Amino acid sequence: MKEQTPVSLLDISTYLPGEPIGAEYYAQFAESDDLRDNVMFRAPKFRHHVAEDETAIDMVERAAAGLIERHGQDTIANVDVLITHTQQPDAPFYGGGGGMAHRLGMKPNWVIDLHNGGCAAFVLGLQLARQLLSSGAGKSALIAIAQNAAGQVFDQPTVRPKAQASVPGDGAAVGLVTLSDKSPILDLECRTYGEYAGDMTLAVDPPRKWWQPGVGELHIGFTESKITKVLARGNRQVPEVSYAVCDRIGVKPKDLDLLVTNQPNRVFLRNWREALELPKERHRDTFDECGNLFAAGIPINFDRAISDGTLKKGDVVMMAAFAHAGDFAGAAAIKWGGRD
């Protein structure tokens, strides 16, 4: 029987919109908030916001520029599978995959928009890409992530005075996955916790459904009770999926060369690396530069680790994240083959 060709995360490129916005921007709007002192909402020093007229498609196009420069327009145009995730879709009734494909000059056989992956969407995209390419759907896939809620949802006039508003930041990333042994995906673990799926809610005053007209601006319905649950779930789930992958690839968590996670706040970052027994220098984050990047956090931090030399050829990287209020978590191990 012929040995199956490995699937690799060949390369990645990213984009941050606009100039960094300092913490003082939100300080000027801050009002009394019962959750202001909660560890979930301790603000980063900086974050980036999408421009008022900037779409998710624009962001993905700008993020893809690095891939096109290094691999050529034809490589991107000939991609067989496009997998996308947009935190704040440009239109409510359909995803952005079709528009992104058109903007990048692609005619893929598969266009798949992901929503349920949340902050772990890049890992879910890797799992889907590996499965499709291994089963003969094509030779290459593109995973496109756009986090664009910070400058749209969290910067609304009645939302930005809230403690939750100062934490998110915007950014985009595009990863190229191919049938090759260059930077193989060693293993993955994705878990759905459906019992928590309804715990992330939207709040508005006066109450209404998200699609109904009204004067109140939507924001995330955090409460002390919900935050306690989310902290407990996130602290447990990210190490659990990471340990599961480590066990299968035969690497102890403390021997990983690099950990890359989503970055909701400093507390999660600290707890996760302590659970995996890793020093801070082997857990890459950009929280104080970019804030909570949601699904874009893993690929943006991965790209930074490549660019600044933290990640070296032959290193084993663990990507891990949990989503929403804990309804999904995923981890993926990759042996990095270097960027040519």
From TrEMBL:
One of its GO terms (biological process) is secondary metabolite biosynthetic process. The keyword Disulfide bond does not apply. Keywords: Acyltransferase, Transferase. GO terms for molecular function: 3-oxoacyl-[acyl-carrier-protein] synthase activity. SUPFAM superfamilies: Thiolase-like. InterPro entries: ACP_syn_III_C, ACP_syn_III_N, Thiolase-like. Residues 246-336 form the Beta-ketoacyl-[acyl-carrier-protein] synthase III C-terminal domain. Residues 116-194 form the Beta-ketoacyl-[acyl-carrier-protein] synthase III N-terminal domain. PANTHER family: 3-OXOACYL-[ACYL-CARRIER-PROTEIN] SYNTHASE 3, BETA-KETOACYL-[ACYL-CARRIER-PROTEIN] SYNTHASE III. This is 3-oxoacyl-[acyl-carrier-protein] synthase-3. It comes from Mycolicibacterium moriokaense. The lineage of its organism: Bacteria, Bacillati, Actinomycetota, Actinomycetes, Mycobacteriales.
